[in-house]
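Hello Y.,

Per our agreement to keep a running log of every chain we model this quarter, I'm adding this entry. I've kept the format consistent with earlier entries: sequence first, then predicted structure.
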Amino acid sequence: MKIVELLKAKQTDMRANKAVTIAFLGDSVTQGCFECYRELSGEIETVFDYPNAYSTRVREILNRLYPKVQVNIINSGISGDGASRGLLRLERDVIDYHPDLAVISYGLNDSMGGLDKLDKYTNALAGIFSALNEAGIETLFLTQNFMCDVESPHLGDDPKLKKVAEKSQRVQTEGVLKAYFEAAKRVCAEYGVRVCDLYAVWEKMSAAGVNTTDLLANYINHPIREYHAYVAVKLVETFLD
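Predicted structure for the entry above:
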């Protein structure tokens, strides 16, 4: 990928080349959200842990591989966001920073709208990719993790959380989320966007008998911290490919 050529150039001559900037646009997983809990007000809140978000881990890896390179990370993930809202804020939250690479990751929240909203999702992705192409920004699409495929005994008795988990489980087990990522990959092919397919990894784990729901920090849709570290490795591998 072009991002590697920029990293190499900066590593070779720090003064002659600018710092490298990578922007991440997505939802709560991108933002760095993990466990969920009920506030005293009754609202459901999530634990925000930016040091363990995969964008932070990407910078740590690149700092190790290219110690002379200043890597700037723009984390534009927002909890609850979907591709359509990502398109609306794309210029402000990504393009205005003039990044060398944009990593886009949507699908979890979009898929909760069911197959009827699939076209809305793919049209939004097409709009994002088109705008980034026009701006001359290299783009990578990251497919996401499974949502819960069983009701976890660790979820607790909170009725609101259990309701969200039940709907997420249906979207996962009825193939809706998979349909979204298959459609996303078709849009990526149309716009020449490289894909880092982590959803396929979850499929392999599930087929191998892994309880994938236990790999979710909130037992609904936020993967555990260790998975973010793995995502960072896979993203950097894709950069290097």
